[in-house]
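Q: Sequence in, structure out?
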Amino acid sequence: MPVLSDRHLLGLEGVPQKDIQLILDTAFTFREILDRPVPKVPTLQGQTVLNFFYESSTRTRMSFELAEKRLSADSINFSKSGSSASKGETLRDTIRTIEAMKIDTVVIRHSAPGSAKLMTGFIDSNIINAGDGAHEHPTQALLDMMTLQEHLNLKSLKGLKVAILGDIKHSRVARSNIHGLKTMGAEVMICGPSTLLPYEAEALGVHISTDINEALEFADVLNILRIQLERQKGGLFPSLREYRKFFGITMKRLNGYKKKFTIMHPGPLNRGVEIDADVADSEHSVILNQVLNGVAVRMAVLVLLTQTHNKGKNRSDG
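A: Exactly. Output:
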């Protein structure tokens, strides 16, 4: 059985196309399992997964927990609140204490960019990055790509034009999507107020615009990002009303173009700000498909990383 190039998933930057395709192909297999009357398989029976969340999360955490249960893995949930970390214990000491309990895989979300990679240096478990600050969120980008393949009935994303709209500067979802989509041959544009575009935007190798109309002319797919007020340290635009006026995706704005857009959003949605309710709930929206496919993608990642790790141990033992 094919395995991945690495036993960790820290981001999509530098991940080979064959690895991304293997994850997507495996996810489609697990997607079929989710449609069964009893959507559960014993693939990871005996494996223990730690959901290690230093930041609040609803969708990602629940998606990983459900993926683990569907694979028959044992899972442990950690949150910073109420733990020894809230008493001043370091990340290194916390995780090494937990790993001493024989953890096979750690799913980590942390506010510090690079925290997932740092963790690989002092524990032997497989590491899955569930979001490290504004750096990367690889499983979200993978489920987005899976959803596009499914919805548009595509075997390849080559040539597909995707516009990522909104708060790019603070978005780990945007960065993972850019790396993943480019690797798979799609064309990417980022669009938002100049104050919400990253300093390194040109180095990302994407089209850049501060004009929503230019992005709509360009794109087949709109991946609309939430305005992350909790990560902003200053007034980066005059008001939410002003943002909606110039960058909000409304049905009136979309109806000005003679094409059918595919509408995506990683959630949670700020309805009436970056996206209107009638757009989010329209026939062109695949937002709920993204949620379901997220479980399948995370099942695929958990299984493939375990197989990759086990194959590496078998080689070393031999």
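The mean pLDDT is 91.
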